[in-house]
Amino acid sequence: MGKPAAERRLAETEAAASMRGMRTSPRKLNLVAQTIRGKTASAALAELTFSRRRIARDVRKVLQAAIANAENNHQLDVDRLFVKEATVGRAFVLKRFHTRGRGRSARVEKMFAHLTVIVRESDEETE
Length: 127
Known about the structure:
Blueprint: E1 14-22, H1 26-36, H2 41-49, H3 56-72, E2 81-99, E3 105-121
Antiparallel strand pairs: 1-3, 2-3
Helix pairs in contact: 2-3
């Protein structure tokens, strides 16, 4: 006797992947996430591959994981996938101090963020 299986939160044509505790601020991560929202999966991968931002590599890994989840776990067609959502959330903050001149100190906040990417299979009518 165990717990009953939890209901699936996403629709049957959707798959998700997430990464928690990414070492960047949510504002910077959201700039990268904005570039892929609403694009097809292949266009979003190409956008992230040639992005000059450091965090784009990690966002690309999360998107590839979402595509793999859609293909392997939910039997969705990879060629018809698009990025439905790319959600950025605020995680914990490490608070450090930086010593300054004349006996002063300054606070340094090292921000972390969460990222969730949801891909969806497009309908035949919309193509």
